[in-house]
Amino acid sequence: MESTDRSTQAKAFDESRTGVKGLADSGITEIPAMFRAHPATLTCLKPPSPPQHLMVPTIDLKGGSVFSKNQQDSKTRQRVVEKIGDAAEKWGFFQVINHGIPVDVLERMIEGTRGFHEQDQEAKTRFYSRDFTRDLYYASNFDLYTSQAASWRDTLGCYMAPNPPRLEDLPVVCGEIMMEYSKQMKNLGEVLFELLSEALGLNPHHLKDMDCAKSQVMFGQYYPPCPQPDLTLGLSKHTDFSFITILLQGKIGGLQVLHDQYWIDVPPVPGALVINIGDLLQLISNDKFISAEHRVIANGSSEPRTSVVCFFSTFMKANARVYGPIKELLSNENPAKYRDFTLTEFSNIFR
């Protein structure tokens, strides 16, 4: 009976097309039952405090000097490669500073995302869809009908590469900054894939030549204030279906990564971007790099939490490209742990 109630609630919520923000704006003081997380999940929302030394690594990209030709900068680059490799192996997560993207671009991207979610409902509703292969969509909870409990979050999703959208097809309130931000993400992504390639002992262009940097999907996430944040999540624990993910956090925290059996906070750092290894890179690196579980706790503040996520991935789009563990990384001592697969096959499993 409970599952029937859950599916009925989900259907009614879906058909309202108003998202979680619509619930928050209605002035509710209790969250609907479909958002209440499993008791075991709620128990671990207040886990033991991790040791103080456990902090997600922060890596200084030196404003692009890692790509300079002079000898001094080549040593700097090597140190950066070592730090990125270490973080990718041990954490699957790290923050980058001095990445070359202007702060005003980051701020305008956050403002544009918030602007989209806070505009009149009619302006958003025309983008509403549960077809996640659409080039652009607005929805709440892509796993709304399959998860144990819904998360307190709405999403604007857009496939930005390899086929960029037309500006006129994007929301007026944030279209221009989405286009500009996506270009900045492409440039930074290519830099990161070079550094990650070297950290694997490969030539700098190896991952890029495998098209790891080719596809990009952007999510503008909006987490309204939650009246009962101890009973739900902003985003339940998961790993990412991507090669890498680049996250721009707003000023309100909530992101946590699972490390050494502790949930570690990833606090917002002004001007920084959070990078995490996705399932696809763990797989092709044959587990050299790890795709760590992470989550977002529900927003208990009085202000909305806004973030922007860029997946280097085709996500739900069909893609017949075949991937498997990189042959150059394999040996008798390190045999392949995974079989080859198409991205469509992997997407279907993820879905």
TrEMBL record:
Q: Identify the InterPro entries for this entry.
A: DIOX_N (IPR026992), IPNS-like_FE2OG_OXY (IPR044861), IPNS-like_sf (IPR027443), Oxoglu/Fe-dep_dioxygenase_dom (IPR005123)
* Record flagged with keyword Oxidoreductase: yes
According to the entry, every stretch annotated as the Fe2OG dioxygenase domain falls at: 214-315
Q: Keywords on this record? A: Iron, Metal-binding, Oxidoreductase
PROSITE patterns xref list: FE2OG_OXY (PS51471)
Tell me, what's a Pfam family for it? DIOX_N
From which domain of life does this come?
A: Eukaryota
Family note: Belongs to the iron/ascorbate-dependent oxidoreductase family.
Q: What is the protein's name according to its record?
A: 1-aminocyclopropane-1-carboxylate oxidase homolog 4-like
The primary gene name is LOC104760749
